[in-house]
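Q: Convert this sequence to structure tokens.
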Amino acid sequence: MESIQNFLSENWLIAISTPIYIILIALEVILSNYQKREFYTLKDAAINLWLNIANATLGIAFKGIALLLLAFLFQFKLMSLSPPWLYWTALFFALDLCFYWEHRSEHYVRILWAVHVTHHSSKEFNLTTGFRSSVFRPFVSIWFFLPLALIGFEPLDILFMDAICQIYGIIVHTRFIKKMPAWFDAIFISPSHHRVHHASNILYLDKNMGMVLIIWDRLFGTFQKEEDFEKVKYGLTHDVEKPHHPTHIIFHEWQQLVKDITKPGLTFRERLKYITAPPGWSHDGSTQTANELRKELYNNEI
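A:
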């Protein structure tokens, strides 16, 4: 009990946010059942919790290394930002932009998609889906956050701001909020924007990558609104064989990646492309990327 109290005192953000999550999830479950919407299943909620625990455990273990890397670059910082309001505002925008490029890379580079795919593998979409963590994300995100230390942001402040933004990123996983005001949708990620992100519909694939701000998607061409004529279908473009298996749900894409790169008769370049090209790329066209699927869909509609 004392060790738990010590942990919570050192990680007060977790201590504050956890009861809020519990209350919101309980309300969503009760409302979902009352309205017979069936937004939750026990198996899916349980696997979401398991993935979050696995990610958090790995994140805590990796935190020391992450801080060392950030601290090393911080020695060579390019500037010092003051006053505090400017520092924290700049850190928020800079970190959210870094997350955008991290997230976009996870959707466009196959080996990074193998890390990220667990977050998208559920056919449900509710607040517990926000906890459906990419287990190995700590090994990926740190490389996108290193420039922040070089700019002049303190290592602990970077991790703290990431934790704050992650809180927002969790609570947008809901189907109960249909639309936000137009001004809000123009600036921030809304539940509607994020429902699009979790869709397996060809129209919606690889869209709305931001965590807090939607402005990066609008600026870099990855924005897509939720259309009335295209109901969101959650999950992946293909079914996971054992969606509730605690290890298969983490490693299934890694297993497929190994199968792809070890196919006989491939050139070195083709094997490398299976690792670095977007998910769905294949040397023989037997599978397609999101952009290829979208192009084919548009051509068929013409």
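The chain has 13 helices and no strands.
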